[in-house]
Design goal:
The protein contains 3 helices and 2 strands; from the N terminus they run ααββα. β1 and β2 form a beta hairpin. Strands 1-2 form a two-stranded antiparallel sheet. By secondary structure, it is of the alpha+beta class.
């Protein structure tokens, strides 16, 4: 999920965030990694030039929403 830390610490971080969320804590996460966002978040805000352009549930396809909002021709596969 998180590309800057090793897999073991990524799992620990993800478990910690999910534990906090289950305890009804609000967690604000900033990321360009849609896979991590989808795995850890229940609601997502898309910002563009510092302005909120979309509030979405992660049950929606974040990749499709990103392509729709930012007009990526032919789509954009963030992971590749």
């Amino acid at each position: 999920m998180l590309k800057i830390i090793d897999p073991t610490n990524t799992q620990l971080f993800n478990s910690f965030i999910k534990k906090l969320a289950k305890q009804n804590n609000a967690i604000i996460m900033s990321s360009h990694n849609l896979e991590s966002v989808a795995a850890l978040c229940t609601r997502v805000v898309f910002l563009h030039n510092g302005k909120l352009v979309e509030l979405s549930d992660t049950s929606d396809s974040l990749q499709e929403k990103y392509n729709e909002l930012f007009g990526v021709p032919g789509g954009f596969d963030y992971e590749n």
